[in-house]
Amino acid sequence: MAWVTGDVIITLVVAHLLASIAAAEVRNLKLSNGFLCVQSLLLSAIIASFAVISQNPTLYWWAGTTVLTKAILLPWILYHYMRRLPQVEVKPLVGFAASLIFLLIFLTAFYRFVHTYVDFIAPTTEALVEPARSNLAIAFSIFALGLYVVMARRDAVKIIIGLILLENGVHLSLVTLAPTMPETTVFGITSNVIVAAYLLLYLTEQIYQQFGTMDTLQLSSLKR
Amino acid sequence: MDTQPIIQVESILAVLVFLVPLAFSLVIFLFGRISRVLREGAAFVGIFFTFLISVLIAQRILRGEVLTFWGMNFYVDGLSALMEILGSFVGVIVILYSLSYVVHNPRLGNLPERRLRIYYGLILLFLSMMNLTCATNSIIMLFVSLEATTLATAFLVTFYWNRDSLEAGYKYLLLVTVGVTFALLGLVLLYSASIPYLPRSRVLLLTELGRIASKIPGNIVLLASALIIAGFGTKAGLVPFHAWLPDAHAEAPIPVSALLSGIVIKVGAYALARTITIFSPSFPAVVLFVAVLCSVSMLVGMMMALVQDDIKRMLAYSSISQIAYVVEGLGLGTYLGVYGGLFHLMNHTILKALLFLTAGALMWATGMRKISELASQRRRMPVTAFCFFVGALGISGVPPFNGFLSKFTIFLALAERGLLWAAVIAVITGFLSIACFGRAAYQIFWTAPPDATEANPGVVILEVPPTMWTGMIILAGVSILLGLYPQLVHPVLDRATNIILRLLSGP
Q1: Is A155 among the domain residues?
Q2: Does residue A223 fall inside a structural domain?
Q3: Which among B339, B481, B484 is positioned nearest to B411, based on CA atoms?
Q4: How far away is chain B from the Cα of A175, in angstroms, using its nearest Cα?
């Protein structure tokens, strides 16, 4: 597998970021779910490529479980609930074009910032060289993107997608920061986010039945 | 500092403490439908066994042992034992109280069997996950089990399944999960920073973190600490990460509120003690950051508590203020600070559980939860009144109650570390909480009901059943006992404090 080089990883990582932005920005929830699936598949491909480059067999296990849990199980759960909920997300406060332009500017700046100051967060010298450096910068950018979706969106399902993006960002950073972590621990982290997403979707469906809306801004019967 | 050597003993007790409640919760989920014995009975027996196991653990810890299992993967020391014993103690009382409050509550009517099964199953599952959080020695498993405590309690918050509780449950689950993900990122940074200094098999261990704390580059420690404080601070309910707390505490059934306020937010404080306290000796900036955050939390929390009319929301905001005392003490990293923090953690668990259960007794008897409405009721509830006064005086730090002793220790510790301004804010908050609880106690119990004339005697509301007041009396008794004889718990607290300080200097 000599064709797997640093450049391949960087290409995958950039595609991963674009898929994340698409999952965050697309208004049709099923399409957004599809992009989330693609994003997770790319995540798994990145992990596998790192496994090839660093000759680390544990990472193959990571890649395999990522496909099973994040690219198959999680989108399936989302799809299962989306069939019973509105297909298009509640109109966000920030319009489509404005949000996209803001994200592109913000993420580029954030990426440049992290990429420049990677030595501030990365303790090992391996993390300072490409492709690990770009990988770490993208991982933090996806974390920031997920946080933006959680905070700026009104649609309950979209917020859950934001939460998944947030966690995928951490997962991507794990590959660079802690590649020796045992598979069981990584599985623990992943299963947590799946259970959290499942419970949140279940509550969202119940809220939709009782409130008739998925708009979190209207969930304000409790005073501050 | 205590110089008694620590003997590491391999013991199955270290894992039984979370496996037993886990097994009983499975029994309730699977067979709870068959009969009440397999539901309420199993819940009580399971939690009682867990309590006995944690007492056994505490006995061994006091003999100078530390229990480990599966190599060093599970590690139960004085701090873990303290949390486990408190958790299962409150658990026993909460399960007993639920028999009347949830199962035989005339205001709730006959609940479907499935809801009760889930209720008891989840309480035991939560306690199991909490004990796992305290028993695990792995940096990442700390996050996994801590998040599992959130997942287990989410459907307890939504127990009533109405609009308000669903909203509170959604907020609780989402905000705490997002917050704790920040902590995960911080923990991963620490993990990766410690890789170069430790053999591969020991990198994940929390007990190794203290040994290498001074070797990790300062910028990584600061970034990771900020992320971890934001993350576990969300779980603990510190301002500005507290948005979930008042809603979740107020909308959950009373026994669950007592559990949330007594134990769930303490798990966040425990995780902070295991991770952040380690860095306080070498990094004064971390101490300052924690002190500023906690000072803001205690003031904002208490001021919000002062203006609440809903008794549950008042208690919830007061929890934000009190947990800030705990975290501030733990963050100092000195003997006095950690001792005071742990003592206040213990006292707040007992007192806030007591206050929530008394508030529940008032709500059970009257069906009201507004302080102004409760004032206009004719009641004959001497036990509830007594317990509320004990709780109110204790939590506002009036001598000779236990809350005074722990708060005073924290004041001294702050002054000792040179943070006089923080000590002043803590004292001011103490006075504010006297005002807050004094007002509530006065309005509820001392104002004369308006229509208490002979011509119109009205309905006199009577005391709650013994299954409810037994737990309240036990908690009130423990609270008074600790105020008069604090030396009773000194060995446990001293052991737990020394464990943390030993971690600071490396094992």
Answers
A1: yes
A2: no
A3: B339
A4: 11
Interface of A with B in 89-118 (CB under 8 A): none
Specify the number of domains making up chain B.
1
- Which chain B residues touch A121 with a CB distance below 8 Å? 189, 219-220, 223
Is residue A111 assigned to a domain? yes
* Contact list, A170 vs chain B (CB under 8 Å): 181, 184-185, 188
Domain count along chain A: 1
Q: What is the residue-wise DSSP string for B164-179? A: HHHHHHHHHHHHHHHH
Residue A194, chain B, CB below 8 Å: the answer is no
Strand partners, A88: A28
Tens of pLDDT along chain B (507 residues) come to: 455 667 888 888 889 999 999 999 999 999 988 888 888 899 999 999 999 999 999 999 888 888 888 888 899 988 999 999 999 999 999 999 998 888 777 777 777 888 889 999 999 999 999 999 999 988 888 999 999 999 999 999 999 888 889 999 999 999 999 999 999 999 998 888 888 888 777 777 888 887 888 888 888 889 999 999 999 999 999 988 999 999 999 999 999 999 999 999 999 999 998 888 888 888 888 999 999 999 999 999 999 999 999 999 999 999 999 999 999 999 998 899 999 999 999 999 999 999 999 999 988 888 888 888 887 777 778 899 999 999 999 998 888 899 999 999 999 999 998 899 999 999 999 999 999 999 998 888 887 666 655 555 566 777 888 888 899 999 999 999 999 999 988 988 998 888 888 777 654
What was the ipTM of the complex prediction? 0.93
Rounded to two decimals, what is the model's pTM? 0.93
Q: Write the CB contacts of A64 (distance below 8 Å, at least 6 apart in sequence).
A: A44
- Dist. CA B44–CA B193, nearest whole Å: 44
Among B144, B163, B171, select the one facing A210 at the smallest CB separation: B163
CA distance B11 to chain A (A): 23
In a domain, B1, yes or no: no
Range of the domain at A87: 6-218
Residues of A in contact with B141 (CB under 8 A): 185, 188
Residue A13 falls within a domain, yes or no?
Answer: yes
Q: Check residue B423 and give left, alpha or beta (phi > 0: left; psi -120 to 50: alpha).
A: alpha
Q: Which residues of B are less than 8 Å from A181 in CB distance? A: 140, 191, 204
